[in-house]
Design a protein that fits this description.
CATH class of chain A: Mainly Alpha
Number of domains of chain A: 1
Helix content of chain A: over 70%
CATH superfamily of chain A: MetI-like
Strand content of chain B: 15-25%
CATH architecture of chain A: Orthogonal Bundle
Order of helices and strands of chain A: HHHHHHHH
Number of helices of chain A: 8
Oligomer: heterodimer
Shape of chain A: flat
Strand content of chain A: under 5%
Distance between the termini of chain B: 49 Å
Number of strands of chain A: 0
Radius of gyration of chain A: 21 Å
Bound molecules: adenosine-5'-diphosphate, magnesium ion
Structural class of chain A: mainly alpha
Strand order of the largest sheet of chain B: 6-7-8-3-9-10
Number of helices of chain B: 9
CATH topology of chain A: MetI-like fold
Amino acid sequence: MDFELMLKVYPFFLEAAWTTILLSVLTAILGLTCGTLGAAARLSRFAALRFLGAAYVSLFRGTPALIQLFILYFGGPQIGIQLDAFEAGVIGLGINAGAYMTETIRGAIISIDKGQREAARTLGLSSWQATYQVILPQASRLMVRPLGVNLNMLIKATALVAAISVIELTYTAQRYIGSTYKPFEMFLLAGVLYMIIIYVVGRGVAWLDRKVQIN
Amino acid sequence: MTEQTDFVEIRHAQKSFGALEVLKDISLSVTRGQIVGIIGSSGSGKSTLLRAINDLDPLTGGEIWLDGVQVNKSLPHRQYEKHINEMRQQVGMVFQHFNLFPHMTARENVTMAPKMLKGLSQEAADKLAEEQLDKVGMLERIDYYPSQLSGGQKQRVAIARALAMKPKLMLFDEATSALDPELVEEVNLVMKRLAEEHMTMIIVTHEMDFAASVCDRVLFMDKGVVVEEGPPATMFKHPTKERTREFLRKHIEGAK
Ligand SMILES: Nc1ncnc2c1ncn2[C@@H]1O[C@H](COP(=O)(O)OP(=O)(O)O)[C@@H](O)[C@H]1O
Ligand SMILES: [Mg+2]
């Protein structure tokens, strides 16, 4: 193994890791937004919204994320959507992650005993008041762990945007392979950096999960 | 329009869940301060009737009136929601499984709705919580979470939570059924105290002794109809219907 080479290129990988982190953060924010809206739609009292929510989930979970990215980035210009690679990456992955998060958020909400909503409603709270005073505070505690799993998947999925030439970790590794012919070292370096990012995020999620538990 | 003298009036209540008819033309009126017990075997529709009164299980036919106002009147969705929220503020409900809010302390369970719906200040809310929790003997546990309380204590907090809205009517759906036998009495005592204060109450129960001691009237329900009703002395000692006799035989002897 060529440690000298790894030490030499490692600063460039660090820089690429920042791009991966930025991409992950923006994707997570967009994903959570889409997930919240998706869950709200799926739980709506309007059938049309429920249908839209369900269609969103099955469409984006039912096709490869890579195809979704290709359609957005390569196919987009044909229908008037001009995005640079980074923007396409964030939007494509964010919408995709949102479909998974929709199910996570919805799952946490429907797992709250229905007696909770009933108790709130019998006191005279409106449906929305019951939701944000009683259901969401409990459901959000249950969501932390599974959303952490979504986040883990999402970070790993950012590697896909190498295919549309976003200069993040995976793309950087591929680029250096072209000039060094050392795939083992380059992918190993990228892998270690992914692992560090995911480890830190995992610890953060575990900390948050402990912190929000009742008592 | 008939004259509205009764406090709670149920007229020809009918309820189906799909093809299953659970309430079959039930009429019932309760005067102010009256305590009505409902007994009957499991699945006879007792909970459904109770839950229809505050529209948790909306009727599919008939009318519910409370203090001169129709609960289940037909209105456009938004207006209906506003109307029903106002009605529900006047009706307290106590559930078999307490349904306390686990993320809130006893104090917060009691004050959340009055603060939200009546705009109580923090001081006023604290005073209310102390008052209501004292009434059910739970003042010492005011800052405990439900998970730190026994079943009987939870149910007493749940009663305090309902009372904090100053309801005109209290509904109890097997409030002691989920409790260990040694915890039943503390909840019964709280209910008896409410009875002494002339709170109007409708109590679904499987405890015949309790029904006999606090209720002014007892209804026996079976398969979605009220089979027989009367004062407890008559109902428990001299029931006229065979179905009632059979039920009481099982329940009173079964308890011994
Ligand atoms: N939400 C519901 N959907 C369908 N059936 C229901 C529902 N709630 C109650 N039932 C049925 O209605 C009948 C009466 O139930 P319930 O009022 O709970 O009886 P009780 O309280 O006397 O035991 C039962 O057969 C029960 O299965
Ligand atoms: Mg019942």
